[in-house]
Amino acid sequence: MRSDPPGSDAPDHSGAPSSAERSAGDGVPAVVGPGTAAADLVRARTLLLESGGRGRGRGGEKRLDAESLRDALVDLHEFWLGTRALELGITAGSGMAIVAVGGLGRRELLPHSDLDLVLLHDGKQGSGLSETADALWYPLWDAHIKLDHSVRTPDQAVKVAAADLTAALGLLEARHIAGDAALSSTLVTAVRAQWRAQIRGRFDELADQAADRWRRSGEIAHRIEPDLKHGRGGLRDLQLLDALAAAQLTDRMPGFSPDSPGGGLPGAHKHLLDVRTELHRAAGRARDVLRAQDADEIGDALRLGDRFDLARVLSDSARTVSYSVDVGLRTARAALPKRTLSALRRGPVRRPLDEGVVEHAGEVVLARDAQPARDPALVLRVAAASARTGLPMSAATLARLAEAAPELREPWPREALDELLALLGSGRRLIDAVEALDRTGLWGRLLPEWGAVRDLPPRDAAHTWTVDRHLVEACAHAGALTTRVSRPDLLVLGALVHDIGKGRGGDHSVVGAELATQIGNRLGLWPSDVALLSAMVRHHLLLPETATRRDLDDPETVARVVEAVGGDTVLLELLHALAEADSLATGPGVWGDWKSSLISQLVIRCRLLTAGEALPGPEEVDPAHRALAADGGLHVELAPGTARAPMTVTVIAPDVPGLLSRAAGVLALHSLQVHSASVRSHAGSAVDSFVVSPRFGEPPSAALLRQDLGRSLAGELDLGRRLAEKEKAYGENAVREQREGLAPPRVLWVEDSTTASVVLELRAADRTGLLHRVAGALEAQGATVRWARVVTLGASVVDVFALDLGGPATRARRRQLEAAVLATVGGD
């Protein structure tokens, strides 16, 4: 027998109506009629599952929602098994019983779940037992119904459960279906008694098993394609909680308050089951991983909205389950029966942590004399103590605070603000503390604006986290940068709220600045600090966007930034640190030495301009490169970088049309990702520099790059064909799915300065040789690229080209170039 891990302790089946009886007035097709052929069961299942899409089925019948479908499937299989049991003599007093585990045992049978059944007997049937078992199993096998089965006495089943943890977890959810109910009751009672008696010796294995599963499957809340069954925060974790409850170590329900998001644990359980039910129905087979391409269909079927709305519901549900499991495991470990000598020792000592806050049994709890109703800052003091010590907050303490703690008056008392700043400045330990407050409804009381970003999925593939988790991650990273700024308090506050305007429509920086003013006033900040906090949120993208998408040698670029910050060097300093914290919290690869150096250069130039000093001029061509350019030959140099910093490839060659695109194509052919490119000239030769990094492996030699570039310029190397082959080898389907999952490509135009140059900004999905294709399209249209900068954000890119159009930058001319670029990006 294959048994699933633990499920709910549902009562024994006792005369539940058949599906035909229960749904006679619901437009659901009648299921099993007279006779017990398994083919009838299959036909009835098919009628239930093929009842059309949203609204009505193929024959106009009402479509069952996810929960009703599960109920109908349970009733259908119970009716068939009950009828078959009567025919085979499996009745009350027969010494035989049919027991269900798995989905049917939990009353959570999904459209394509296996049937997990045990034929239980008292050992007195002799040779007739085998015939009865065959008569029960073979019709199901012949009908191609997936079946996991076993034939055991209660004692045999109990012995298996004692030796195999997975079998024990499965038998904890055993439920009587038909036959001798007393026999089933004997099994259930014995298995649960044994589980309670052995839990002290099996708890570590149970916890390790869960941790291994989480490592394999990841967190549902923060995965693009989550595993709804095995992932952290999934259905297996709910069954784990049931197993702990069966051992009488926890009550399965941590202290959720009416303010808790998502309806607490029951709501999370239903959402996860509903999504997995529709996933089975949409896929036509058993499936646990929600693929990105199926999310819109499932969101629509559940009337939740599109894939982003579905992702938000899943994140909320999974985080609620994850928090509950953390509390359940912690509570269970503390409640484990003690060994003989340990039981005689003195209980845990209450160690003071702060006013009204103590440590007890490894958790942060309230002191005996604490008065939550008279201490408005107590919630934040408890959270700050938890973050400072790394100890979790007791679920009972959070429940008491949720029930008794008063609302903070506006403006906040200074003590409350100080505790908030202590919490925000505690680094990585901040994350678990805020999560616990949020899951129990306390964080939303402190920051009512949080509701709009809670569990909000990112729209950009570069973002790893939901928006609310990204804000907390940014705050944790900002905590490590506080010694670099003169106002560490405003840095962590700005990191916490810099994206608070998302999820409300409009420019999130503008909306967020208004909300930051509202929040700052509520916290009791000085008016000047409120203005500074609002400016941080309004301009939190100013430095990274300018540094990576504009020409830093253009004085007009620097002047615009200084004007935007009002010449305020404190604000500039805060924005610099916030840009780093924001990037680090976005995802892997978003922050690095290249991006750091660009922003640092911009900040230095802004400080010089603010101080009235002269800005450094454009970097001149290196004397060694001038000498190479004078000889009129083809030269390629590769300057190595560090472990994190990209390297520089310099191409010196006669300045001919198409040189930039061909050089970019050769770099792409050798798996070098281009971050930026500058185009200069000397003595009739082009001096083009590319900041690159290998996508994988070791970089090619400069000699190999020179050889392939020479062949391309001579017409001996078809770069277009070779790059297409490379993209196909890389995984053509994956590349196309990547592009389909993102917003369509877009072109923006920005004036570079008072010169004739304009900036074309392309936002699109990344693909092999993209810079080669775009540069080639611009060159074919007669535009000269002065410099280019490429930013890769996950599966997306922002490519910026400063262009000399060779004439007026008319609207028609821009449309012509835009059409050429978009055609190139979309082409295969």
From TrEMBL:
Function, as annotated, reads: Modifies, by uridylylation and deuridylylation, the PII regulatory proteins (GlnB and homologs), in response to the nitrogen status of the cell that GlnD senses through the glutamine level. Under low glutamine levels, catalyzes the conversion of the PII proteins and UTP to PII-UMP and PPi, while under higher glutamine levels, GlnD hydrolyzes PII-UMP to PII and UMP (deuridylylation). Thus, controls uridylylation state and activity of the PII proteins, and plays an important role in the regulation of nitrogen metabolism.
Give the gene symbol.
glnD
Q: Where is this region: Uridylyltransferase?
A: 1-352
NCBIfam families in the record, alphabetically?
A: PRK03381.1 (NF002895), UTase_glnD (TIGR01693)
Q: What is its EC number?
A: 2.7.7.59, 3.1.4.-
Recorded superkingdom:
Bacteria
Q: Return the protein name.
A: Bifunctional uridylyltransferase/uridylyl-removing enzyme
Which CDD domains does the UniProt record give? ACT_UUR-ACR-like, HDc, NT_GlnE_GlnD_like
SUPFAM superfamilies (alphabetical): ACT-like (SSF55021), Nucleotidyltransferase (SSF81301), Poly A polymerase C-terminal region-like (SSF81891)
- Species lineage, top-down? Bacteria, Bacillati, Actinomycetota, Actinomycetes, Mycobacteriales
Record text on activity regulation: Uridylyltransferase (UTase) activity is inhibited by glutamine, while glutamine activates uridylyl-removing (UR) activity.
The UniProt entry, under PROSITE patterns, shows: ACT, HD
Does the record carry Magnesium as a key word? yes
Q: Where is the ACT domain?
A: 648-724, 759-828
The molecular function GO annotations come to: [protein-PII] uridylyltransferase activity
Written domain comment of the UniProt record: Has four distinct domains: an N-terminal nucleotidyltransferase (NT) domain responsible for UTase activity, a central HD domain that encodes UR activity, and two C-terminal ACT domains that seem to have a role in glutamine sensing.
Pfam entry (one):
HD
